[in-house]
Amino acid sequence: MIRYIVKRILQMIPLLIGISIVIFAIIQAAPGGPEGTLLDRGMFVDPAAIDAYRARLGVDQPVYVQYFRWAGAMLGGDMGVSFQTQRPVLDMIVERLPDTLRLMGISFLIAFCLAMPLGVFSALRQYSVFDYICTSLSFVAIAMPVFWFGLMLQLVFSVKLQWLPVAGTATIGIDSVIDRLKHIVMPATVLSLTYVAGWSRYMRSSMLGVLKQDYIRTAHSKGLRKDTVITVHALKNAGIPVVSVVTQDIARIFSGAVITETIFGWPGIGRMFIQAIGARDYPLLMGILMMGSTMVIVFNLLADIIYGWLDPRISYG
């Protein structure tokens, strides 16, 4: 297993290089540039001043020159300086990362703790009223636009009922756990909704397949209790294919936070990403996108490791 992990980590290096080239090329090919923010504000800027501004930022050089300069800095742990704030990109990401991780972590816990039991109970009660209700609600949740659901929650619970704050992470002048929990309820609900629906369907399908296996019938014939058969024999094997979906979706939760953080004014990396797009802030965009790409690769490796733990038949020789 150790040898396999080391091999996969080494394979990550050329993969990340290829990803960085593609991302850098796409960003550079996008219309407009950092100077576009000046024009968007209605400022009448002399062409010579625009050329001087581009030269100061270094975006007047050929794309390959800009890439090698950025890549060389990355090797030294320097992700560049933001065009908009003139602050190191790494400092900006580290500053926003805790809020995003807190939102992602709570959303993941909500999704996992709801989806797994719902999937198992739906499988155990196949074609029952409970199963039909869960299936119908799951389809509705998957099809529901995230931004619309977030706005509806704000309208009902913040504007109409005034139970929860409409945005932000904490009320100014109030520093309490209860206040912070009130602020995170709606963003975490919105972010976890789709994953509750999807993961519960995957768990139901996997559990139904396991329950039809011969070894499950053998366990029942031996007189084992039903809950023992489910928890000891069925649940672990049913969880193997679900691991792939869950671990890969953890990285997707990060991308989903872009919309959620924007709706609820959550000061995380997702909201900063939207702001960087509007400002054509190339270094900040590269830093955030590379961090997201690394998360996807790392969680794919984590999925393979968990496979080996759940199923001893899987060998990574």
Order of helices and strands: HHHHHHHHHHHH
Low-confidence stretches: none
Number of strands: 0
- Which CATH-level-2 architecture of the largest domain? Orthogonal Bundle
CATH superfamily of the largest domain: MetI-like
Count of spatially separate domains: 2
* Alpha-beta content class: mainly alpha
What would your notes on this structure say?
77% of the residues lie in helices and 0% in strands. The chain is mostly helical. The longest helix has 38 residues. It is globular. The mean pLDDT is 86.
In short:
This protein has helices spanning 2-29, 36-40, 47-57, 63-75, 89-124, 129-143, 146-160, 177-211, 214-221, 226-263, 269-279, 282-310. With 317 residues, it is an all-alpha fold.
Q: How would the blueprint of this fold be written?
A:
Elements: H1 2-29, H2 36-40, H3 47-57, H4 63-75, H5 89-124, H6 129-143, H7 146-160, H8 177-211, H9 214-221, H10 226-263, H11 269-279, H12 282-310
Helix pairs in contact: 1-12, 5-6, 5-8, 5-10, 5-12, 6-8, 7-8, 8-10, 9-10, 10-11, 10-12, 11-12
What labels describe this entry?
single chain; 317 residues; mainly alpha; MetI-like fold; 2 domains; 77% helix; globular
